[in-house]
Amino acid sequence: LTPEIFKEIGKSEICLKTITQCFNNEITSKNKPKEWKESRTKLIPKKKKPTVKDFRPISLTNISYKLFMSIIKDEIENHLKINHLIKENQMGFTKGGRKEDNIFILQYLVEKAFTSKKKKTLVLITVDYSKAYDSIDREKMIEALIEYKIHPHIIDNIIKLYSGDYTKIRFGEQEKRIDITSGIKQGCTLSTTLFKIVTYMIIKELEKRGRGYQIDDITLESLFFADDSILMAESVENAKHNLNILTEVSKKYGLNLNREKCKIIIYNDTENTKEIEGIKVEENVKYLGVTIDNKKDLFKTQREMIRKNAEKYANMTHGIICRSVNKILMGKTYWKCVILPSLLQNIGIIKFNQKEISDLQTIENGVYRKILEGRNNTPISVLRGEIGSSLMETRFIESKLLMAKSIIEGENELTKKILAKVREDRKNTWNNQVNTYLQKIGMNYNEIYTLKKIEIKNKVKKWDTQKWREELEKRTSTHIYRIFKTEIKEEQCYDNRLESIILFQARANTLELNKRKRYKQEDPKCELCGYKEENLIHFLIECKELEESRNKELIKKCKDENKELMAGKILFEKEEIEEIKCMLGKMWRYRKRKLEEINRNI
């Protein structure tokens, strides 16, 4: 049955009762459906011209099997929760668990190593397993389930479904069956929980026999996010001890360390250690996508990488959008929905100084100028207003506050405890930046507890809008814009035509008119009609040479004794925006032709 059929079945009470009864019967049945033991492996190419190594195998399993195993998964997860068997330092495959929590804890440990009364050595070992999912010893996995007192019926079902399972792979016209004897089943909804329980066994042994890193009343031997783990210790000797325990217990469950990919960094190393158990000591390591340095400022390299990547992708903007049917829409989507989420991961944790944030803002301003084809003197407030973009700093503020909110509302007691310690620590850089941000937007820390996430976002947005209004007020050139543009909102009126460029530059008051010549001590008069200064109002309303190019009905509709208000009505009239764009394009082209004629005759 297809997923669509199951969705329809789910709408019927009778069908739901029938399926429930079928699944209940399956719990105690001796023989499992043949289809439940079969998976189909599809090879997805990672690149355009793949070699054998460039295919990613994806396993597809029966829908009813997935539903059944989801029920089993929920039962096991409830058992772990009710009996307080969850290991708080395994964030992966856990409800509400995020990789940011691991990075947050690491930041706390590193800073405390430097700010304690006596500097402490901190050894971190990033652990890489070779083919973690495929290597799990199934017998040992079942033993782990028994040790965790999972219901015998559930264990029995897992054994039966893992016995004699196989996958089919199609190569062109040929199909081959491969029997599977090791590893956790790919494409199964229960697999993440099974893998997590295996890591619990490793964590349990580290807690029992390991030598943890202690700060105040917190002791940690390891942090896990799925199979990405990191060991910690107070000395090189303790690190060796913990690594040997991890290696031994992991091997027992079929997991083997890939020592070439394991890395070590040491903080406050007084012995100039080069390697531990054959694993090289580095200046920085990559953990969960974040580069961590062996200095107190542990994210310096990561911040520099973010800036360089921002510049790189910003420079690619024109090439990405130039062939697009609607380069404005494509450009905004490319930058706001693809690049920014990639660049700004983990900014809820990583501390950027004001200059670094300002540099990122400058890069983003350049992107928006390219997208809208704005001139170099285009005010940032106008770019933001037309694109519908918040300040870069606003994103940092929101991310920091929502990070705290997520920890507070989360179920992980370890992360909550660390947050409480961070809040007490006046030297902690994350804590100090949160306090600065709270003060900026007029909030206090208790409001993070009491307000909903949407209310926090609205407070940050209100601050951002206020900054936007203040910026508009500073510029005399944006007088018309600030009267008619009342909110930061993406405009849907721009496309690839010259008319759109002229509309944007007119709204920004950056059209290349002769008014700007006065800054160069040149004559700013209108070369078409001879008026003393060619400015925006003169171009839109007054120049008699452009009279025939104007849409008389539109001009009449927008007529006002105050010429600034009249100009604003012309530029911001939403109902007839296409007619306005056509008129502006016609006027600009006529002006260009007349100037070319004048220059030829000189």
Describe the structure.
- This is Reverse transcriptase domain-containing protein.
- The protein has 602 residues and is an alpha+beta fold.
- The chain folds into 3 domains: 263 residues, no CATH class; 185 residues, no CATH class; 91 residues, no CATH class.
- The chain is 53% helix and 11% strand.
- It is built from 25 helices and 14 strands.
- Helix 6 packs antiparallel against helix 7 and helix 10 packs parallel to helix 13.
- The protein is elongated, with a radius of gyration of 32 Å.
Give the gist of this structure:
By secondary structure, the chain is α+β, with helices and mostly antiparallel strands. It has helices at 3-9, 13-28, 63-82, 99-115, 132-135, 138-147, 152-162, 191-209, 236-252, 300-315, 317-321, 327-343, 354-372, 380-387, 392-409, 413-424, 429-441, 446-450, 453-474, 479-484, 498-507, 536-542, 552-557, 563-572, 577-601, and strands spanning 38-45, 55-61, 122-127, 166-171, 174-179, 213-215, 218-220, 222-225, 228-233, 263-267, 275-276, 279-280, 284-287, 290-293.
